[in-house]
Amino acid sequence: MSDTLDLTKDLLPRQLADAYLDALIELDPVTGTYLGVPESAGRLPDYSPAGLERIAGLQRAVLARLPHAEALPGGDSDVERRCARLLRERLAAQLAVHDAGETLRLMNNLFSPVQNVRNVFTLMPLETAEDWATVARRMRAVPAALEGYRAALAEGASRGLTAGPRQVTTVIGQLTEWLGDGARPDWFTAFTADGPEELRGALDAAAGEAAAAVGALRDWLAGEYAAAAAGTPDVAGRERYARWVRYWNGTDLDLEEAYAYGWAEYHRLLAEMWAEADKILPGSSPWEALKHLDTEGRAVEGVPEIRAWLQNLMDEAITALDGTHFELADRVKRVESMIAPDGSAAAPYYTPPSLDFSRPGRTWLPTLGQTRFPVYDLVSTWYHEGVPGHHLQLAQWVHVAERLSRFQTTAGMVSANAEGWALYAERLMDELGFLTDPELRLGYLDCQMMRAVRVIIDIGMHLGLEIPADSGFHAGERWTPELAQEFFGRHSGRPADFIESELVRYLGMPGQAIGYKLGERAWLAGREAARAAHGEAFDAKRWHMAALSLGSLGLDDLREELAAL
């Protein structure tokens, strides 16, 4: 347990949650960098079994102390109660994953230790020589971090707990991409190329050490670990899947009901897509219309140009929404469009601002080598990743962190809450008339369809469920990853490499992908319950701002809390 946490003090739940966060940051400097803690900048986490157990020990100690915090005078107030429920649920869910050995086989193409070790550098300040010296210090820590991760994977393999072969193959490919080739340098050397000349020797040496460590991990994965993982199923099975569903969604779901809901949304959206496609290319299917838009629809040429275009899109959305549908603080209005580093997964993503807003919220576009970017699906996607999606929610959380707790607004985030809001934000922009253009609306529906398909195939393949008779697709058969990829490909306008990357993601992060649609359902139900309670007095702007200021909640609590606003 971290020495920074004194559990002999009388701490109310919010104080205990923030004391836990401070202790966690000491053990996990990557989290510290996301939050903008300067003391974290030169370090990386200990991903070894001993390092993982230290975090678990901290979590157990905090959970043991939580009943005392709740029993203190004032511990049962609404703000304390809400924080205590989140803290208990989050730590219990994380410990369930740890105690089952999942952290000893944690590997995927988006959010596992190898991506954390690299991506954290993209969040560091780079203005001064001191900043670059800190970069060099952190790069020199890469070998130890990756060696600790390797030790955890080796320990998992010794217990018969390995990642699925698709995850191994994909991460090997990512590491190979980061190492460069004869025509281009490794990622770490390229990243440090803009550093000051007086630190050139130190930066080059540190980058070389980091790249060598990446190469050593890649070779070990390709040899010893891949052989150990060869017989591991790519799918989770019901027990593992249920554990991860709780982790990502903050609830224990009725999985068969959620699967049926995914199919109901699929059929609803499919009918809308056919109607919209006919406006673009009369008589065509949605997928023919989307393929037509790939070549004949509006597009932006050039990587710098698409970054600027996306920035303008977010700026325009803020101008249009602020004061009408939201009431935004000035520091929440700042968001930056970025290009994701090479070797990233195919999906765009968002990183929230630091706690002091010195680093703004940022959206990240993986280009996958493209230089031409059709905009039909980017508009809805940037409403999701940027404004009014992830940025407005997560930046607002940071803005109100001192009124709630820093834990509730940062490390306590429940994925399905955030992804549900972002998908709700896409739908809100459709409701407000921002997606009336047939190209943009078909792109929006395609994004919605992808989230419905995720519910179907994520639950279906991990549990091996039967495909319904009215699906028009391999009726009566049991889902497999191969069938899931085929079904996704038939119902998406996205290229094959994107679909492959997404499927690997779903297999490596069981239960995460369903949170978008199920989270959106909770947000919509909460809004409609609040509207019914208030009648004509319902104020959508007031409700949105109150909802965005709740901080994190699991799906167990989200609908109830939203309905009460």
TrEMBL record:
Q: Which domain of life is it from?
A: Bacteria
What organism does the UniProt record list as the source?
Streptomyces aidingensis
**Pfam families per record:** DUF885
Protein name as catalogued: Uncharacterized conserved protein, DUF885 familyt
- Taxonomy of the source species: Bacteria, Bacillati, Actinomycetota, Actinomycetes, Kitasatosporales
The UniProt entry, under PANTHER family, shows: DUF885 DOMAIN-CONTAINING PROTEIN, GLR0591 PROTEIN
